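lol forgot to send this yesterday, sorry. struct tokens for the thing we talked abt
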């Protein structure tokens, strides 16, 4: 399947995606997908795309954050703090604001009181050290590092890569055992050659800062939490994770640890292992509409550090959480050689519970290209709104329970497009109440929708396709359901047959080409269907192209990239006595009058 995805212009310098990660690991090719336009809340009216499907859109790597290292003599000053100097080590022992500027080959060491908050104002510094972390906070209440407006600041850890645990050594170029906040209107470039770029064993907050952090292991790590509220953040992990948390217990005040939250800003992650790896939850939101949230990710084989001959990562996912992932708003673009978005179920957490394994999308734009699954929830995947485009994946959606209540989903899978897997539970189900779902798969034993349990449709619109081509071996359909298929409302359009016909309410009517189903017209009230490819009428050509299905109470637009051999529709919007037309590029291909509850199109 070859479709194109329109990316917001603000992301054009962020990431180059590959549509089918299993077939092509070069991050310079894009195979996009159908991203139809939002046309209102009525799921029975979908006017399709608002751009040229054949237009190639690529998203490139970000513009590198470059700084000039300063050469002036180092200076530290404070009006309310207290420090001492021992050779090239400056030891801060009291709360206060400390202004740093110039070049230091040494260390800023914070050993303040338990209630002390220390602020380091970087006014153009280059700080490097080869014995320990260049900036290291071992005690205090909180460390704030602020890059002043229009200044370039470099923190460089020149130690050799970590091979053994040494308790006395700091874990990052900026390393803290207390809460850490990075902020400022300036630029900060952090290089961690020993282990991590930025590291704290507590909470980490990044706000209004242009930050580039590179870690030999992890680029950015807050063991208790990581929160990004604004600014520009580039995270490069040479051998580890891009952004990471470790803990999943409760603090002494009852606060849940382990969540990674991105509420704003432009975030780019390039990592050999998982790009964003949360020991509890991941939350993506957009708190300020004038400062949009944009997250772009390369993981695994897409990483600039990828070299399979010398190193194999055990997990190469885009967003991975041990409990839940929630996307409320913003733009998320992922190219990962493993699952693009993944939530674990059943893993023991330090809070005494087990991971829930849920993914919830409430709004936003999500585009993913994956070498495995697009969105994979070990338990429940819920789509309430937004637009999700899976440009290439083994399976676009995979979960035990899939609930679609709104939004627009466009999926291309090299295996099944949507799969209720039954992997974590003894039952599974697909339920759709509203929204729009467009599914296509590659040629082979591939189904558009595959439920190992039940399927229920009460509202919304589904366009699903089996394996492409006009002939086939009967191994693929638009929908394969092991359990029951129940339909009380909405619209289901299928190309290349259904495994079985839905058990439909009296409000749902049917139309289909001859040969599309074993029953007369294909409406058997739950009887077995026929996996059909060939169309018995040689005058009908369901060739590739842009299609519109229109008539009384119904208008759906979509794109087929391949030839299909049969067409079926079940819909509560079909009206007896009305005429409906399926057109390709404005030319009628099929037309029928809905003369009864079940019509065969000849």
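and heres what i got for the seq, position by position
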């Amino acid at each position: 399947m070859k479709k194109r995805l329109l990316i917001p212009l603000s992301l054009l310098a962020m990431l180059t995606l590959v549509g089918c990660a299993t077939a092509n690991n070069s991050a310079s090719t894009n195979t996009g997908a159908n991203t139809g336009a939002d046309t209102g809340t009525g799921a029975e009216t979908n006017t399709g795309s608002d751009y040229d499907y054949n237009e190639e859109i690529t998203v490139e790597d970000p513009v590198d954050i470059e700084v000039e290292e300063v050469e002036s003599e180092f200076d530290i000053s404070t009006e309310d703090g207290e420090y001492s100097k021992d050779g090239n080590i400056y030891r801060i022992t009291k709360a206060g604001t400390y202004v740093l500027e110039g070049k230091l080959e040494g260390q800023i060491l914070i050993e303040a009181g338990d209630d002390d908050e220390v602020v380091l104002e970087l006014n153009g510094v280059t700080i490097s050290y080869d014995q320990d972390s260049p900036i290291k906070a071992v005690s205090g209440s909180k460390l704030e590092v602020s890059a002043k407006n229009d200044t370039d600041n470099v923190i460089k850890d020149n130690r050799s890569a970590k091979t053994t645990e040494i308790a006395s050594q700091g874990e990052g170029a900026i390393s803290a055992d207390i809460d850490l906040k990075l902020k400022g209107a300036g630029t900060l470039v952090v290089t961690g050659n020993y282990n991590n770029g930025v590291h704290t064993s507590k909470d980490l907050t990044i706000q209004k800062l242009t930050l580039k952090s590179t870690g030999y292991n992890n680029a950015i790590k807050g063991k208790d939490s990581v929160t990004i509220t604004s600014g520009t953040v580039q995270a490069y992990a040479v051998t580890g994770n891009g952004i990471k948390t470790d803990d999943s217990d409760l603090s002494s005040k009852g606060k849940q640890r382990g969540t990674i939250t991105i509420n704003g800003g432009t975030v780019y992650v390039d990592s050999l292992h998982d790009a964003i790896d949360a020991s509890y939850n991941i939350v993506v939101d957009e708190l300020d509409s004038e400062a949009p949230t944009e997250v772009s990710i390369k993981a695994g084989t897409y990483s600039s550090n990828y070299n399979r001959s010398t190193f194999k990562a055990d997990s190469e996912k885009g967003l991975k959480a041990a409990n839940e992932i929630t996307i409320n708003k913003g733009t998320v673009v992922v190219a990962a050689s493993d699952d693009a978005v993944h939530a674990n179920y059943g893993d023991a957490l330090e809070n005494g519970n087990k991971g829930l394994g849920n993914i919830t999308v409430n709004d936003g734009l999500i585009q993913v290209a994956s070498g495995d699954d697009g969105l994979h929830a070990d338990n429940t995947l819920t789509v309430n709104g937004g637009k999700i485009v899976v440009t290439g994946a083994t399976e676009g959606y995979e979960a035990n329970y899939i609930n679609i209540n709104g939004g627009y989903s466009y999926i291309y899978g090299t295996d099944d497009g949507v799969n209720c897997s039954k992997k974590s539970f003894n039952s599974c189900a697909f339920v759709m109440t509203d929204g729009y779902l467009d599914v296509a798969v590659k040629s082979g034993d591939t189904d558009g929708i595959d439920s190992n349990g039940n399927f229920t449709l009460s509202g919304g619109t589904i366009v699903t396709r089996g394996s492409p081509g006009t002939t086939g071996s009967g191994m693929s359909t638009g929908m394969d359901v092991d359990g029951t298929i129940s339909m009380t409302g909405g619209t289901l359009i299928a190309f290349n047959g259904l495994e079985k016909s839905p058990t439909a309410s009296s409000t749902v009517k049917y139309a289909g080409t001859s040969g599309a189903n074993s029953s007369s017209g294909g409406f058997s009230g739950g009887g077995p269907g026929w996996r059909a490819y060939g169309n018995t009428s040689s005058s009908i050509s369901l060739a590739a192209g842009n299609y519109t299905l229109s008539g009384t109470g119904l208008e759906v637009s979509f794109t087929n990239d391949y030839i299909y051999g049969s067409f079926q529709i079940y819909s509560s919007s079909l009206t007896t006595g009305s005429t409906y037309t399926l057109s390709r590029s404005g030319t009628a291909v099929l037309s029928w009058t809905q003369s009864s509850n079940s019509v065969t199109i000849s």
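The longest strand covers residues 395-413. anyway ping me if u want another try
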